[in-house]
Amino acid sequence: MSEKVLLIDDEEEFLNALSERMEIRGMDVKTAATADSAVAALDNNEYDAIVLDLQMPDMNGIEMLKAIKVRHPDMQVILLTGHATVEAGIQAMKLGAMDFMEKPADIESLTEKIKKAQAKKMVIVEKKTASKVSDILSHKGW
Amino acid sequence: MSQATVPAREGLKFFGRVSASVSHEIKNVFAVINEAAGLIEDFTLMAERGMPLKPERLKSAANAIQGQIRRGDTIVKNMNAFAHSTDEDVREVNLAELLGLTVALANRLADMKQIRLTAGDCEPVSLAADSFDLMLLLHSSIAAALDALSAGDTLAVGVKPENGGASFSLSSPGKDAPLANDEAFAQFARSMGADVGVDEDNRASVLRIQPTARPE
């Protein structure tokens, strides 16, 4: 099954090239160059993973991560940054980011992380479904 | 502008801010080059497996790499000029050139706030100054002005000769003088021997400086 990915970065050439490379690897990729368009894309689609730039002009990645986690708590977010600092990495992980990568990123490592994100998302969805079924069974008399 | 008024730590922090911003931009340049080169590699691997190679796709990836190399070269040239601003304590400084360089170095700061930063009207003017201190003052004035503006605004910075010295103007169309209410910046400017005022005619903030005395 192809991984559905939302790629968020204000560098349009980076977005175009990386999304094409991800598509070549069989992923279904949507892109957003601003925080506003990212929020709209998030509200209108389901994704297995989000790859997010840490420094966006209209909202920094940490703020964006917080906003994503409020609206979509199960979303798997991989942060990409031009200057990875230990502090930013720790803060991102505490806020629920799945992983943190420094630019320029290795496409194979990124692909691996996206596959892990998809697997993690599937486990969460399955658990939720099992819990819903169990809840229905415990409340219905049949 | 007077000499030895800027605490060493302020100068170091300014150098650090500019270096951090420049290194971040260079990382972004490398990231685009990395993906464009990777795309060319992907295309060639696909061609080896028998898929037709589209020349226009190769061309556009190569163009992206060349464009980023030009961008990177400009960034590094600006950083080099900035680093050389500490070569002499006081020298004759071309203020239009210095303004252009400071604007280029502050562009990322403006981009992050979604404000368009431009070098406006620049008349030929040069005077004796510590170019590093002058860039610190000008960069700080731009940062303070950006704080007073909003996303979508434009900030134009110009320079002209005035009373044996020079004045820098900072203005934003349709907005009041951006430094008019910033006492913290005005205090900092005064500590560097500069004066902050308002040009009521064109609603611009004005930063007036005088030549620095050359050391004996």
Automatic annotation (TrEMBL), chain A:
Pfam families: Response_reg. The modification 4-aspartylphosphate is found at residue 53. SMART domains: REC (SM00448). Residues 4-118 form the Response regulatory domain. Keywords: Phosphoprotein, Two-component regulatory system. InterPro entries: Bact_response_regulator, CheY-like_superfamily, Sig_transdc_resp-reg_receiver. The keyword Ligase does not apply. It comes from the Bacteria. This is Response regulator.
TrEMBL record, chain B:
Its EC number is 2.7.13.3. It is an enzyme of class 2 (transferase). InterPro entries: HisK_dim/P_dom, HisK_dim/P_sf. It catalyses: ATP + protein L-histidine = ADP + protein N-phospho-L-histidine. It comes from the Bacteria. This is histidine kinase. It comes from Pseudodesulfovibrio portus.
